[in-house]
# Entry
Amino acid sequence: MKMKKIIIYGFGALLLTSIFSCKKRFDDMNVSPNSPVNAPSQMLLANVIASAAYNIQLNAGLVMTDLWVQHAKATTYMDEDKYNPRNDRQDIIWSALYTQPFEDCIQAEKLAKDNAQPNNEAMALVLKGYIGYNLTMLMGDVPYTEAGQGADGKITPAYDPQLTVFNAILADLNTAISLMDPASPAIVTDELPKYDLIYMGDMDKWKKFANTLKLRIYLTMKAGGLNKTAEINTLLASADIFQSSADEAKLTYLTSGNPVYQWINPSSSRRSDFRVSSTL
# Structure
């Protein structure tokens, strides 16, 4: 009887060991290589460029501000055309810019810094500043200085006044410019041209983008009553700002036309909610 109990206990212990061993191997087998926990900074930057370009032009532009300057005309939902934006449209703009590409900029900046990729870090800061500028011009006070710190416990970041946002963006742009090194590859491989969808890794042009965005911010601050004449004149005298349309920051669609145009093209299969304004 005693021997029988020992055999039973031994079998039970072996069974438990086998169960836990199987569980461990099962977990290892179910780590999908197609669902990485972290993405390389350059992949996040590519997503930021594509997402920001599309959503600033469509959700913030065509659906809202293009109507106000009479570049486009609404044919179905007339609220925004009458300067009465619906709450859900404003929510869509916020979600499409703040919770998606803006957050990716912050994560790309951190990843690039951790992996000693100064040019990638600089690109992330410039894109963060560009999206942040558009957000504050659309919304007023927005979280900027405490944004993207949810992992550190700041799940309700403070809404910064617009002037604070402008100054924080200018500081980020100055940091970005100091990090840029045209002689240094932005990443450790030759992948950058596949992910930098604006300048194909040309850091001289990224510097012009950063300085031109600084100029735009200073002009906005001056229009608000602040004396930024010296800063404006310094940048205007520099060769490191946009000199022609060849320098502009734009996303070129390679295999098809700009998808936003489908919304105003009468021959498109899209719904006919918008058309080009007769004013334009």
Observations:
- The helical segments are 2-29, 41-68, 87-114, 118-139, 162-179, 192-195, 203-223, 229-236.
- The longest helix spans residues 2-29.
- Confidence is low (pLDDT under 50) at residues 2-16.
- The radius of gyration is 25 Å.
